Amino acid sequence: MSSLPKIKQKKKIAVLISGNGSNLQALINFQLKSHYEISLVISSHPNVLGLKKATQANIKTLTINHALYSSRADFDSQLIKVIDGESIDFVILAGFMRILTTGFTLHYLGRMLNIHPSLLPKYPGLNTHKKALEAGNKEHGASIHFVTPELDSGPVILQSKITVNSDDTEESLKIKVAIEEHKIYPLVTDWLASGRLTFSNNQVLWRGELIAKPFSFQELPWS
Ligand code: GRF
């Protein structure tokens, strides 16, 4: 018999991936203790490691191969059809390497999160570790934000910081940031599923109150 308290009426989430799925694995590992259940994993690329991780956890998987669609709009329409067909409550982007159409982002406005490997608004887009090194930043990290139409620009909910040392490389930063990502993504997904975290007028609300700035993982009372 499990010693964990049973959480009734979990929210259904779909996790969208394109590759490795290490954040997906972190979400899987936290699932039992959370207010969410991963009902579906969708990959934009076939045969990726993340799909195997989902299958091993007995989660339904689907590949919607982006290369088989002639336009972003067609690809996104298929995604919506599948996600809504499963009555999903929240969409969690976890290394999903596709630029989404405005229509898609608005369809899930306030119900879709992304994780990004930088301290947004610094370094939207790719090569964030390289950019942090080139800029000589002493701090770097990861951000979780609600997804809005502009890439990596939705309101930030929580950030976790790491220190950049003089001997850090792109690879070492990637590893350090990933460790933080795996702590914070399940946590914030749980906040969303539990109803404590909401979105209104392009802003983040915590227990119904606007937050003035993103939470810092290092400054959370319980971290
Ligand atoms: C992570 O760095 C995440 O921030 C970014 O894509 C990467 C996904 O890694 N959006 P994984 O597939 O979860 O291992």
Account of the protein in words:
The structure is a single chain. With 223 residues, the chain is of the alpha/beta class. It contains 6 helices and 11 strands. It has helices at 22-30, 49-56, 72-85, 102-107, 128-134, 170-194; strands at 11-17, 36-43, 61-63, 90-93, 112-116, 139-146, 156-163, 197-200, 203-206, 209-210, 215-216. An 8-stranded mixed β-sheet has the order 3-2-1-4-5-6-7-11, covered by helices on one side. Strands 8-9-10 form a 3-stranded antiparallel β-sheet. Helix 1 (22-30) packs parallel to helix 6. Bound molecules: 5-O-phosphono-beta-D-ribofuranosylamine. Residues 17, 19-23, 50, 94-95, 115-117, 181 line the site of 5-O-phosphono-beta-D-ribofuranosylamine.
What is the fold's blueprint, element by element?
Elements: E1 11-17, H1 22-30, E2 36-43, H2 49-56, E3 61-63, H3 72-85, E4 90-93, H4 102-107, E5 112-116, H5 128-134, E6 139-146, E7 156-163, H6 170-194, E8 197-200, E9 203-206, E10 209-210, E11 215-216
Parallel strand pairs: 1-2, 1-4, 2-3, 4-5, 7-11
Antiparallel strand pairs: 5-6, 6-7, 8-9, 9-10
Helix pairs in contact: 1-6
Bound molecules: 5-O-phosphono-beta-D-ribofuranosylamine.
